[in-house]
Structure formats: structure tokens, C-alpha cells
Design goal:
Layout: E1 2-5, H1 10-20, E2 26-28, H2 50-65, E3 69-78, E4 85-86, H3 98-108, E5 118-128, E6 136-146, E7 162-164, E8 169-170, H4 176-182, H5 184-199
Parallel strand pairs: 1-2, 1-3
Antiparallel strand pairs: 3-4, 3-5, 5-6, 6-7, 7-8
Helix pairs in contact: 1-5, 4-5
Amino acid sequence: MKLLVGTRSPGKTREIRELFAGLPFEVSFPADRLLQPLPEEADLERSMSYVENAVAKARYYAMRGGLPAVSDDSGIEVDALGGAPGPRSARWSASGGDVENNTLLLKQLSGVPQDKRTARYRCVVAFLATASSVPEIVEATCDGFILTEPRGTGGFGYDPLFFSPELNMTFGEAPAASKHRVSHRGRAFRALIEVLLRRST
């Protein structure tokens, strides 16, 4: 099965390629198909709903690429901040850069004790066989807490601040295979892959 993955994030692209490695899918990304960025792409993640954002991106890329498309929307939810930044995670700071987003998160959690810094990553993935199809949705989470300073240089986004009790390290410190095993994106894409394999049998 050919799949167009609707993301231009280098971090997501790397992780999703690894998650599909060795499986019977021909996975491509917008740059692989020479789909240049267009201004309307900036409006694809404006909703405060992970599902709506994921579906909007998958439908857009299914339309542009003429292929079955899959896209995810992910975020980190911090309990002390009422679940924020949530779907706004990638655009939490004014610049939307990883360093700036992490700096802002630490500032907002200043003075919050460690036992109150619980958080989870959430990933919602949408698959559309065609641009007009009813989307298939899968979702996964992983729990952890936010440290007071970053650890590790791997991953992307909030990974250096997100401590995973399952791994006993931050996602920024974790080897890629270990992170994929427990992460929200790893779990969600494995669930999607099961759905797609059932469809193809």
C-alpha cells in the first residue's frame, strides 16, 4: 500500500520512517513527492482538537498527493496547566521553536513541586483512503512528568523535559528504539499499522 504521510516536521518524519521500516507499505512524505509548501498549510492546525487537526492535514495531503494519506496531531498536556499546551504544543511560544517552547513551559511551571508536574504526551492519527473518505482515527498517550531542566539532546519538541517512568529517563535521553516502544506516537502508529494490515488482507 502506498501512503503519503502529511507532515513536514523533520522530527516526525524521522520517527515515522523508522516506525514503518520493514513493513509492506510504500511510505512517502510531501518533499518526496515534490509537494512544495503552500500558504494554506499554515491553517491546517488551527483547531483546539487533535482529531480535527489530524483529519484536516490528512485530507489536504490526500487531495494534493492523490494517494491514501495519514497524518497525526500530537501535543503535551501538563496537569498543573489545566492540560495545556495540548494541541497548541508546537506553537506554544511566540516563535514556535523547540527551545522557546521549552523555556516558556519551564517558566510557567516555576515553583511547581515535582509531584505536581505530571504530564502526558497524546497522539491522534487520521487515515484517509481518499480525500473524500470517512477518516479512520487511532489515539494513544504516554504518561510522565516535566523536569525542572532539560536532559538529553535526542528527540524533538519537549522530549528533553519529558521524563518517562517506563524508561527511567527523558525522551531526550532515550535511544530511538526505546522511545518508539513507549511513546504516544509509537503506540498510535502501531495501532494504525494493525488497522491498515487488516484492510489489506
